[in-house]
Amino acid sequence: MTSSSVSASFMLSDGTIADMSTSITDEAVSQQLLTSTLYSVAAVSIGQYAEGKSIVQIIQPPTALSGVCLYAYISRRGNIQAVLPVAEAGQQWTPSPMMNPMGNFEAGDTIVVFTSPNANAQRNFAYTVITGNNVGAIFMGQAASGNATATHILSGANIGAAITGLKVARHFCVSDEGSLITSGLYILNAKGLPVGACTPTDPSNQQVQFTALGGAPIALNYTLRLTCSA
User: Fold this and answer.
1) pLDDT tens across 116-139, in order?
2) C-alpha gyration radius of the chain
């Protein structure tokens, strides 16, 4: 099994920087990004390192030095506490505020990342959202010839079941399918009609950024769709 080296840095509420760096097993869930031993005594979770502090600036989002970082989030007791942007080495030039603020870290909090190797034979893609009331959610699927859907990474539910009654306020989609994509990632309503959309970003070509455009209120039976020509 392959692995990808992932690094990140965050400015904390006390003015210090949390420097993170870990070798992540590709296509394995629940992989934790730990502190770099360059600036901490041991490689520990963000909750252990920064308990009682919060992220005020994302200096460098979780960045794959090799492979593709599809999503990242802060986990608290097995749930998504906050979602994070992702990047690929050489294409991470713009720091950002914490778009999904979560308050202070608790000791058990971790940063979870998911990577695929550069070849990405599984054709994984991921869709990260922040709702209008600050709920973070991540959906992942596998691209294929024709239509592909994406489901919640933890519950396996479609978007209509996972965040029903909420509105997508900010979002981004990560995919390296490139010219094979014939339409953006669409949010389909119960009739199968597009009511929201997000253009997939290939992190090897451009920094992934949250956008407030293309969001939609979510209701039951809403789904996600990505369409590819092959």
Assistant:
1) 987 767 899 999 999 999 999 999
2) 17
Q: Which of 27, 20, 101, 39 is nearest to 71 (CA)?
A: 27
| Interval 44-83: pLDDT, tens | 999 999 999 999 999 999 999 988 999 999 999 999 999 9
Listed by start position, the domains of the chain span 1-118, 123-230
Q: Which residues contact 24 (CB under 8 A, 6 or more apart)?
A: 3, 4, 5, 6, 31, 33, 113, 115
Q: Write down the pTM of the prediction.
A: 0.95
Burial of 117 (0-12, 13-18, 19+ CB in 10 A): middle
Specify the pLDDT at position 190. 97
CB 25 within 8 A of CB 31: yes
- Neighbouring C-beta atoms of residue 30, cutoff 10 Å: 10
User: What's the length of the chain?
Assistant: 230
